[in-house]
Amino acid sequence: MKNILLVGALLTSFIAPITQAATKVKIATQYPDGTYSLIQLRDAAKQIKERTEGRVEIKLYPGGVQGGNTTVLKKINKGLLGGAMLEGGAFAADYADSQVYNAPMFFNGYDEVDAVRAELDSVIESGLSDAGWNTFGLIEGGFAYAMTNNPVTSVTELKQQKLWLPSNDPLVARIAQELEISPIYLGIGEVLTSLQTNSINAIVAPPVAALALQWFSKVKYVTDVPFMYTYGTLAISDKIFNKISAEDQIIVREVLTAAVVLMDEDSRKENLKAFDALASQNIKSIEPTDEQKKALAIESQGAIKALIEGGEFSQQIFDQMKSIVEKHRAL
């Protein structure tokens, strides 16, 4: 009997570590280390490990070391990664309507964005959930503006610039096509050198990115019309998330949702400060006239119509967004 008990104790000692092995969630992102978002993610990973007593571990791969969006998503599908923090449009192959906030020249300001997000963030998250992604809120990327070496107040003038747009972004490429713009597509790491050599003389980017990456030092003007609203999200695939126990899933959701809220709030503050900071760097803000704004609105409507017809996002969700904005503008 004693021998049986001893054998049982030995077996338990070997089995226990196996049943308690940590679920490792590998998350890739383009955000570099040291940024506010990475600081929050690292703190969240620490909290999750402590609160789950080591049953869930989050491993972060910042700075694009796992590759671009397409590569990262392929690795997630193969189980080599568990998730990613990417721009919302990166998940468009699984849920096209995630791109609706990117409608060109649609929003006039952050107040309209806030009105829309209050109603549609949950719709986008639900759509991503149905597509097999666990998300924890949306993270503002901010408005992208045209920054140039020549004053630009119209799409026609923008066409005349050597405009950079990010490579591997199908929606941005489609918008450029519909606006009949012939941009120069480059990776983010190539932009500063190209500005320095005058291979490009115009960019479209959020102010905070232009400052952080030193692009501002090679442009003279910013057109004060939001070209596009950008956002990102942290998403973990069902394949990995479902390996976590129900109790630990609650902890993971709570911690990551809190971290995303902080990232979202910080991004708004930093972009507003960054736009104001452009003026202190002798970058002149150019505001189109009312007539020029009307012309831009017409260009926007045509591009959005083509995006809907091309299946970039649905008429239904765009109509929802448009209705919210129109009600807000009528207040």
Task: Put the structure in a nutshell.
The protein has 331 residues and is of the alpha/beta class. It contains twelve helices and ten strands. It is globular and about 60 Å long.
Detailed description of the structure:
With 331 residues, this protein is an alpha/beta fold. It has a single domain, classed as 3-Layer(aba) Sandwich (D-Maltodextrin-Binding Protein, domain 2). The chain is built from 12 helices and 10 strands. Strand 1, helix 2 and strand 2 form a beta-alpha-beta unit. The radius of gyration is 23 Å and the shape is globular. The protein starts with a helix and ends with a helix. The model is unreliable at 4-18 (pLDDT under 50).
Identify the notable features of this structure and list them briefly.
331 residues, alpha/beta, 10-stranded mixed sheet, 12 helices, 18% strand
Strands, total number: 10
Strand content: 15-25%
Quaternary structure annotation = single chain
Name given to the CATH architecture: 3-Layer(aba) Sandwich
Helix content: 40-55%
